[in-house]
Design goal:
The chain has 13 helices and ten strands. The protein is of the alpha/beta class and 393 residues long. The chain has a single domain, classed as Alpha/Beta hydrolase fold, catalytic domain (Rossmann fold, 3-Layer(aba) Sandwich). The strands form two sheets. It has an eight-stranded mixed sheet with strand order 1-2-4-3-5-6-9-10, with helices on both faces. β5, α5 and β6 form a beta-alpha-beta unit. The longest helix is centred in the first third of the chain and has 20 residues. The relative contact order is 0.15.
Amino acid sequence: MRRWLLLLLMMLLGSGCVATRIKNPHTLDRFDRHVSTSDGWKVALFRVPPAGRAGEPHHGTPILMAHGTAVNRYNFSHTGSDLAGYLAGQGFDVWLLEYRGDRTSVPPSNKDWARGAWTVEDFAEKDVPAALDAIQSETGRDEVLWVGHSLGGVLGYVVAQGPHASRIKGMVAIGAPGTFSHTNDMASRVLHLRGLAPKKGQLGFRPLTKLAKGALRMAPDAPVFHMVFNADNFVVDAATSSVNPAMENVSSGVVRQYLRWTAEGRLVSADGQRDYTAGLVKVSAPTLFIAGRVDHIVPPWTVRYAYDHVSSPDKTWMVMGQGWGHRHDYGHGDLLVGDWVFEELFPIVGSWLVDHATTPEAPPITLELAPAFEEATPGEAPEGEAPEGEAPE
């Protein structure tokens, strides 16, 4: 336990390490465009179009995928655990949003980038609406199906109880807490270090990528890694290959907001004026809730709270674990990046989304009608046909 506390301390002390932005994201696979927010940021949208081969389905409602904390869209696009590609193969138009502060984003100024003052509200109230507007402009659809992991699921809860709620047709919340009212040991220990939380800048996860890759190879079942995923569910080489492209820094604003959530046991806005945990009752969109049985970051009961308190009459609860017929108990990260997700988790998500999608109406088909036959007398063939057993002239 002391090892992961030491690692966390190192991350906090490295909070002044500002991540280097990706100056030309157009070179990245699946990058589609930058969209401008109301306060001058540009955030990146990636896209995986639906399978377009003849005979394959196309579901008209696009999907918007929202990633978790300290990672980017790569969590949905990892080789071998590519949920975005899987859903596109099911006939969906899939869009992936990267928030402000991710290395593909463009700040109004370098000062804004270095200051790291953005919060969860900036993601939900500025980045998401910009993405929704762009998707609507491109596809003509004013609704999306939301797929969010961890913070991405929380953003879904926030959006679904706000002014853009009508634009969320349905939601899949994967490892996304609705409360922290019953914290686990990890959260309690983190609170002891809250005095070290950065007042400005970024929490430096990026500088730790090389250290994390080496340590993961040496001790994949160490407590610090077991906190994030169950080592039974992934191949070490696959996991280490995802560390560098997927990791992102976290703003000091988001860090302080998380510490407040943990201390107060509820999800609230950065200014404390809005209680998103209490607001779950406003969420009426159909929702599939998925929890990892041994998730130490977002324990199952915190996800269950969201399931119990949303007002949607169409809601589904499931746990990824041996008691539910799966090979292993799932943690947090291996709900997306793991050996068995393609077989055990993705089909469940895909089927639920298909059931809640709007399939475009088929285009009208013009048929050439055959000329009407005159009624034939018994034993006679209609004009143009030969009697049975005779060849036509």
